[in-house]
Write a sequence for this structure.
């Protein structure tokens, strides 16, 4: 039995302190093996089957490196450790700030430009030049996503474009041709009306189904059960409707252009759905939508007949509504503006080397493999997306399960493709637009009023960001 | 220094280290960052009071502050009223009271994330349990979380869910009231209402005061419910953009940590100020048994 006298409190505490320090330093193992493989860490934001595809690509790279080591005596192979990281934008921020980032990391376009503005990303321009990787190899709009202020900071991995998705069964039920999607905004409007369905309660309490917008029936007697098209579903691109009418959010010189006539016209169109359907009716109807990633998804459960969605939608349909009859086509353009044909949101997941990476050269070797035709096709096929490279193998096309992958790839070449505005305040801009669109859809502001607020606020934010960059520059 | 003193200090040391490393240093660092242009990714650059001056003219900051004040007033009063009513009911001598007390306390044990998702379903415009009930009495309920006029009240109403903690503390306070005070009041001919107003409430004012302070501090920091139920942008139309939500956006989405630190310090000063004011006025209405 231990007697109290043996446990001098301050000695016990000192011992505990010493033990904790030892544990701390043992935890921070800084030993470097100069003979074994060169280990690098790769953080990626994907999960599920997307993560599995990335792991396969990593394994293929590691395998190749081991092969090189076998062929060449003294060659130390690179070994990539793949780590799937949720909420990567926040964890990467902390890791970079703590000078302990991964060697290579996946990124969203949303986070790239603010990170570059804050000096957190390694400039890849020279490395790409030396490796002979150029814009010519890529679909130009997708390559450009990694470019900022004339330098290359990241390479695309799995790209995405958007298209109009339509439910063929609902088209047939409404007596429409299920194989003919709308090609102009006017056609979209007309089809949307025909595909809208209400449950109407008559004076005798009897319930009947009525098609169209039914403005003659008071709101208290009708309940929306199906809508042809709603600009707010999904609302991920609510900031981008101006592009479909020739507008932009920022011009080439970086000036904020939210209050342009094109944008006002676009949001008048957005507001027209609230007028035709009734704000409260839409709010009640959409509040019943299930999770995007579930069988209760508004499009997959048949509550919405047409919606704008990305190339990834096929993966969700395949999982949650495998028997669904659906189609994908370029989003319609205003009838009087054929020059805005094939306007499309172009985006991509990216790969970059965070500032402070302990092994930038090895990290770039891995990026180089991933951006090769072999690596890219392995990854994009696993993600069921198209390759960002111009050159695509016949096997890739033959093996691709997405029935409309060709349309999404073609759209990536469209001259009317648009991307996130390249500014360090893009998150702020997007949020401000989101609130403005919410006001417009609730008919609490006219598009002009709402966009004017955005114009003023974001011009101020942009000026502030430029002041911040100038201050940093002057201190260098 | 004698051995006993050293021993005492050593026993206090873990707390001092914890407080210094995890509280004092971050607070002081945040104060410095609030006077800097700081993005986390780059070293801070001292800019004086610029962040605070910008806050004064930031419309979204004022919107988030007013949202938070409305929420605090609504949620604290509603949850105080509910917890007091429940505590009074659960203080009566009824068979199986332990069961009822457990039942009413249970919801407050549920994690906020789970209860937020549950309330989202309850608030569904079409087919949600609340609107379905309203329909049975002839009222067409709103799309609670999608309607700018109803989103904030919906979150305030949800505060009732967490009234269990305050209820338990109040219940303890109620059970601590000496029986002889009620007997004396009865002898004086006091009815139920008189006993409530002149005995029960004055005797539990210290507990009410404690719950009020904790409730206000908690409601000024409201975040999780809004983040899950209406998104980080405080939809619809910023009706649920609360102070800490705005702070989170500025810090982690816009990478303006200096500005966010200024917001955090202002929040700290506001809560501190409010607590001190309440403390000052508490002498007028809080009765301690010993005094």
């Amino acid at each position: 039995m231990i007697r109290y006298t043996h446990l001098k409190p301050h000695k016990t505490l000192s011992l505990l302190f010493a033990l904790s320090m030892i544990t701390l330093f043992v935890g921070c193992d800084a030993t470097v093996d100069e003979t074994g493989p060169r280990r690098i860490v790769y953080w990626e934001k994907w999960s599920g089957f997307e993560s599995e595809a990335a792991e396969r690509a990593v394994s293929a790279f590691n395998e190749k490196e081991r092969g090189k080591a076998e062929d060449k005596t003294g060659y130390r192979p690179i070994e990539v450790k793949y780590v799937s990281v949720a909420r990567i934008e926040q964890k990467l921020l902390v890791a970079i700030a703590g000078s302990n980032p991964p060697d290579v990391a996946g990124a969203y376009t949303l986070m790239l430009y603010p990170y570059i503005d804050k000096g957190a990303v390694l400039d890849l321009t020279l490395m790409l030049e030396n490796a002979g990787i150029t814009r010519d190899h890529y679909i130009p709009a997708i390559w450009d996503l990694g470019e900022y202020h004339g330098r290359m900071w990241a390479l695309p991995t799995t790209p995405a474009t958007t298209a109009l998705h339509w439910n063929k069964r609902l088209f047939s039920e409404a007596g429409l041709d299920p194989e003919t999607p709308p090609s102009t905004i006017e056609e979209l409007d007309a089809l949307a009306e025909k595909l809208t369905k209400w449950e109407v309660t008559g004076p005798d309490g009897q319930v009947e189904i009525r098609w169209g917008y039914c403005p003659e029936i008071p709101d208290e007697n009708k309940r929306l059960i199906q809508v042809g098209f709603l600009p707010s579903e999904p609302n991920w691109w609510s900031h981008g409707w101006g592009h479909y009418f020739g507008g932009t959010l920022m011009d080439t010189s970086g000036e904020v252009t939210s209050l342009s006539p094109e944008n006002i016209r676009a949001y008048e169109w957005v507001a027209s759905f609230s007028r035709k359907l009734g704000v409260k009716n839409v709010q009640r109807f959409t509040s019943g939508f299930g999770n995007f990633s579930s069988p209760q998804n508004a499009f997959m459960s048949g509550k919405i007949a047409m919606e704008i969605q990305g190339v990834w939608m096929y993966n969700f349909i395949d999982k949650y509504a495998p028997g669904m009859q659906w189609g994908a086509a370029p989003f319609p353009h205003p009838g009087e503006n054929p020059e805005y044909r094939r306007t499309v949101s172009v985006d991509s997941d990216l790969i970059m080397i965070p500032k402070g990476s302990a092994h930038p050269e090895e990290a770039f070797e891995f990026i180089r493999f991933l951006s090769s035709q072999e690596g890219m096709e392995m990854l994009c096929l696993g993600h069921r997306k198209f390759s960002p490279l111009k050159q695509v193998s016949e096997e890739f096309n033959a093996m691709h399960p997405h029935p409309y992958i060709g349309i999404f790839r073609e759209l990536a070449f469209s001259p009317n493709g648009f991307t996130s505005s390249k500014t360090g305040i893009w998150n702020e801009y997007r949020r401000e637009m989101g609130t403005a669109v919410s006001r417009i859809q609730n008919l609490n502001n006219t598009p002009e009023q709402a966009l004017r607020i955005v114009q003023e606020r974001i011009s101020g934010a942009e000026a502030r960001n430029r002041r911040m960059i100038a201050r940093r520059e002057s201190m260098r | 220094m004698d051995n006993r003193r050293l021993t005492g200090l050593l026993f206090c040391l873990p707390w001092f280290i914890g407080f210094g490393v995890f509280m004092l240093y971050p607070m002081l660092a945040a104060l410095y960052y609030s006077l800097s242009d700081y993005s986390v990714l780059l070293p801070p650059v001292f800019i004086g009071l610029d962040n605070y001056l910008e806050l004064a003219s930031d419309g979204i900051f004022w919107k988030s502050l007013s949202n938070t004040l409305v929420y605090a007033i609504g949620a604290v009063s509603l949850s105080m009223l509910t917890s007091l009513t429940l505590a009074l009911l659960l203080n009566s001598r009824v068979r199986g009271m332990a069961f009822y007390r457990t039942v009413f306390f249970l919801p407050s044990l549920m994690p906020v994330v789970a209860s937020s998702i549950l309330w989202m379903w309850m608030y569904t415009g079409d087919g949600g349990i609340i609107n379905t009930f309203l329909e049975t009495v002839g009222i067409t309920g709103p799309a609670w979380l999608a309607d700018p006029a109803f989103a904030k009240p919906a979150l305030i109403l949800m505060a009732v869910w967490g009234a269990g903690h305050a209820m338990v503390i109040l219940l303890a306070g109620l059970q601590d009231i000496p029986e002889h005070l009620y007997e004396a009041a009865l002898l004086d001919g006091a009815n139920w209402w008189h006993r409530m107003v002149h005995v029960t409430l004055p005797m539990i004012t210290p507990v009410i005061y404690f719950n009020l302070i904790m409730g206000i501090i908690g409601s000024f920091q409201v975040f999780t419910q809004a983040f899950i139920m209406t998104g980080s942008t405080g939809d619809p139309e910023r009706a649920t953009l609360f102070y800490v939500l705005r702070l989170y956006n500025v810090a982690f989405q816009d990478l303006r940590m200096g500005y966010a630190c200024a917001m955090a310090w202002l929040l700290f000063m506001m809560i501190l100020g409010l607590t001190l004011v309440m403390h000052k006025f508490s002498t007028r209405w809080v009765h301690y048994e010993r005094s």
